[in-house]
Amino acid sequence: MSKAFTGIVAAVGCVAIASLVLNILIWIKVKDDYSDTKTNSEPNLKFERISIKADPIPTAVRHTAQKTRPAKIRLRTINSTSKGIPFGSNPEPMYVNDSHFCPSYGEPDNKPEYKVAASYILGGLDQHVDPCDDFYTFACNTYIKNHNASEMKVERIGTYDEAQDAVNLNITDALLPVKFDDSSWSETERIVKATLLACVHHSRARKPIDNVKDVLLEMKELFGGIPFLNHTLKPDLDLFNVMGQLEQNHAMGTLMASMVSVDYKHVERNALFIAQPSLPMARDYYVLPQHTNVLEDRAKNVHLMLKSFAEGVLDDASPYYDMIKAAARDVVKLEVQIATASWPDSAMRNYAQQYNPYTVEALKKRYPSIVWDSYLKALLSSVTGYDIRSTNIVIAQPSYISWLNALIQGGTSNETVVNYLLTNLIFEDADFLGGIFKTRMKESQYVKYAVRSGRGITRIGAQPFPRGSAVDPNIECLNTMMTYMPFGPGYVYVKSKEKRTEVVKDVEHQTDLVFRSFLKMIESLSWMSQTSMDLARKKAAAMIKNYGWPKDLFGDFKNSAKIDQYHKQDYGEIINLYLANSTHNYYLIRKTMLKGYSNRESLKLIKEPGDRNVFLMSPALVNAWYQPERNSITFPYAHFQPPYYSYGFPQAFNYGGQAGSGGHELVHGFDDKGLQFGPDGSLSNCSWIECGWMDAKTKGSFRNMAQCVVTQYSTQCCPQNTGNVRCANGMSTQGENIADIGGELAAYFAYREYVKELKSEEKRLPGLEQFTPNQLFWMGYGYSWCMSITPSRLTKQLLTDVHSPSICRVNNVLQNIPEFAKDFGCSIGQNMYPPAEQRCAVWIEE
């Protein structure tokens, strides 16, 4: 037990006032920020009355939108007590501030926003746990007990997931008055409304709408037949033309994958990047011998999917069963070959090695077996008035393209390649082939290509695992829409926010303090040369900050001309499709979305100049990101809500969450990837093997700092000690871990600067008066990572994700920040306050 924490009895004498029962009305926020929704009706808030004591503190009951969708506003009071400690029982010892901290006991602020903030913290807090021993469990145990992923039949549920669900439901409510056939509404809102209605109807249909005929027709047009059903392919089949069509029309990579982004050696222009494809499973599952069982499951799932398809299109598929089984094995064998030829994630951290520019003619000479003209013509067919011969092309993994060239040259079977392409197409279209196909897709844990591949050169937002099915189809449909039509739902969401200008102004100031604090941190480094220090300042000063939404595109939310034009060309047909058949046209509507996404968000950019202000993804995503090739950080408006931020919450809460995210993204500009890119986003000071603006001596010291983090995360074996895959990979997660540690420390220093500006400490939260604002900062950070996850999902995350599991992102991070231990009175040598030689000083002198 720490010196600052002891049994509840020791605290009662000092803080007798805290033992009084406070009957307070807690506004449990499910779908929106407090008083921040533009509507003529009452705000979408749920009310619950709870009795809060300091001895013990009960848990506020919060309802996740994933379980049930809250009803429209009804004010009600519910007497609720903690599930763990019923009133009238003898409380077990809790860890609270002892007499050492009595003089710091503070007065609470009972305004509604503070009560809401308290409800969030109480929803995770378990004071039976010593925060100096296991802070994650201290901050999250109650949440995890009340959100058991296995019992909820999901692989993962966390505060982040609930926040995204709340945003999606907010968009649903904002669309209620919109009439898709009324031109007085913006075309963007009408397109979004029509798409959502069509998707929800498709999801709710008692008998799933079957579009097998549409899919078969496309297959016939593309290939002439289906090899795994013993069909003959058309004699003039051009595989590379088909691959280009599939990428453009289905947002689906094949034997290779292309995207248009800024040319990061010539940032004034864009380039077409051609790379290895993203496979349905992580590379390690295909190439490491300990995962042969996973590979066998993959072959089984492909077999069952192809068999179901055959049974759905044939009166009697039994004569083809052996052929289907053999085809499934061949498909997975080809995936293994692709994985073996592909670069592992650990090899894709050096961007000098991934920048290999070519003209079309040079490509044809270097890789002659690949029919480049056919591929590029089909891929870019929607880019009008464009000469393909002028395309600036960058090959990201040249050894993979060499392998592909050899594969084609070696006369690999067209039937095998077509079966591979058909398998991917069937999985992508499974939602439209009948109920059994959706079941097969779920059993396979298949993730749509665009979702698992992410955006930009660093694959921002890539999700290698299924999101999990929500009870409310509005949530699931909007998740899909935000991938394929990101700025439509984003526009609807931001427009519904009444205080958006004030919120952004607050976050801007917060972020400015984080930047200033981080620069002070690096100025303390004895190992950074003056030259590198000056370049670091220059890079930070030049970093683009995108707050909330793309201002130029969205305009003033009164004149929608620009955002409507943005959507009209590629998504406008959706309204006509919905009006033509509101119940059966979602297949065509989704195809329109897919093609719109490929063209509007990627391929058509090839004609445009480079733009450092690109927002990249939806403002309605609960996320934040750094784009090294643009040296920009982006904070979507959806991130400005709990568990990260809320206007009116204590700034200690907001700085622990949103400012920590800001610090995290800022530090990405200075991690092992970010250091390769200069102030304007271009690769900087390149040698024949690597790029980077640090001088050699400083770079060596940086690598020592990074290696400390790599070694620490690998050797501590977070989070578990059993199983085939059990530790976070310190090497593959190093960028995120460095950003977590350095970013949260910068946010903490920024908060202390804010307090100096305020010239006084903030008031406490009601029911949590014994916790100082500094402690609330760390508690808010911990709460933002509360998550229940199944063992199987955790194993996959450890194997494939560049992010460490949530418990590591709390405990391992705070173990490296002595300021945390001091704020909680931890003693040196306790788990959360290891000796200096066991800590990593990240972007600061120890």
TrEMBL record:
Q: Where do the Peptidase M13 C-terminal domain residues begin and end?
A: 623-840
Which InterPro entries does the entry link to? MetalloPept_cat_dom_sf (IPR024079), Peptidase_M13 (IPR000718), Peptidase_M13_C (IPR018497), Peptidase_M13_dom_2 (IPR042089), Peptidase_M13_N (IPR008753)
Name the Gene Ontology molecular function terms of this record.
metal ion binding; metalloendopeptidase activity
Q: Which cofactor does it need?
A: Zn(2+)
- Looking at the record, the residues that make up the Peptidase M13 N-terminal domain are 131-550
GO CC terms on record?
plasma membrane
What keywords sit in the KW lines? Hydrolase, Membrane, Metal-binding, Metalloprotease, Protease, Transmembrane, Transmembrane helix, Zinc
Q: Which domain of life is it from?
A: Eukaryota
> Per its UniProt record, what Pfam families does this chain match?
Peptidase_M13 (PF01431), Peptidase_M13_N (PF05649)
On whether Metal-binding is a keyword of this UniProt record, the answer is: yes
Respond yes or no to whether keyword rRNA-binding is given for this record: no
Family that this chain belongs to: Belongs to the peptidase M13 family.
Q: What is this protein called?
A: Uncharacterized protein
Q: Which organism is it from?
A: Cylicocyclus nassatus (Nematode worm)
